[in-house]
């Protein structure tokens, strides 16, 4: 298929456009994990490839930042990996990025209505014994997401229309009436998705649960929410971003930075992709990003009505991770794991994080709490987060040495995180358009994955699937 990989060179981040003088087999738009995985597979399949990335770095939603005073490396985006996430695990092995276990000893806290309930960290949160109505409701959600659930094609579920007509809030309100049970049902969803329960289709989140496994292990809510044996089991030494950084390095000059793609047009013979670094011609294009931002590109002659419906029906969650660095892991001395399911004022979920030589508490700010803080000065955000840590872990939380935070919602090439969710009606009306190619344009991005959609593993899966599609057409 086409010219030998590496035959073409493009200036990395050059101010001048470096348009192709010939045609490549495939143009990948986006150097997040899905785009990099697609490019890697395409190159391995013998295709000539160029990757156009809007930012000046690879990785997309996987990104290392450094704390301002101490220069400590922090995961601003994706951090954790767990069992059945074998595709990202294989890449980590291949590129020599080691993992270590997330601290999960002592007690975790369920903080509800100002009251802290301690429970053993080995209990998968928030499935604590004392949850009343939430127990049967969570069991029901799990049952709806099991037993032959069409993972990755939820529109094929026998009750798809009904489940996609409800928000997660409507679905759970039918089952629980007490405030604490409502809070628990909300956090079980918003911890992974960072949206309000009335923003997301119930069918979407049931598919998300069903997707938290692999071809041999059905997805479970417990695996989704757990640390041990779950999606938060391990983290990467040096930050998860080591993986995309090394993948991009291996792809070399094929990756062109600072090249936001503005339009993709095609005729029967080739696609023409216009970016801020010039215009590129290719036989196939892989758009490797969330459907909440792929609509920012102009497509000519145009997209299908269903694909446009997807662009309208998906939006990103609102999220930041706030990390505070401490001289000691004082929470451990109190027998605490560092994990909390909290009240969202403004932090709703916390973990002990890791970077060489530092003790870190990391908290997620999600949904409306994040939207409120997005346009507040950072000092306000820091003050509120630290006071929230004081509620959860005690006054020692005020003695932080440094911190790090990154506002994903304000990033034009992400528009939020961790994942794009669909509003009711979107999956049943437009779902198949998630992966259906339009002309020469193929779609990747974690939102198009079957298993582990929303996660790094899903991103890698989706990129490899899109590359298979393209190689199938090229050969
Ligand atoms: C705060 C946070 C925490 C998370 N935690 C975890 C976790 O612990 N574990 C886990 O597995 N996952 C986690 N995730 C999710 C994970 O980061 C994503 O699932 C994954 O990185 C998505 O990869 P992607 O390639 O599909 O999309 P992206 O990473 O969004 O990549 C898309 C790329 O396209 C580029 N782009 C966009 N528009 C254009 C354009 N017009 N032209 C050119 N380039 C463009 C973007 O700059 C970006 O590089 C988290 C995400 C966030 C934000």
Automatic annotation (TrEMBL):
Binding site for substrate: 364
GO molecular function, one term: oxidoreductase activity
Keyword Oxidoreductase tagged: yes
Cofactor entry: FAD
Binding site for FAD: 34, 53-54, 261, 447
Domain Amine oxidase as annotated: residue spans: 33-471
Top-level taxon: Bacteria
Keyword list, A-Z: Oxidoreductase, Signal
Keyword match Signal: yes
Listed Pfam families: Amino_oxidase
Membership in a protein family: Belongs to the flavin monoamine oxidase family.
Name the record gives this protein: NAD(P)-binding protein
Organism: Gordonia desulfuricans
Lineage: Bacteria, Bacillati, Actinomycetota, Actinomycetes, Mycobacteriales
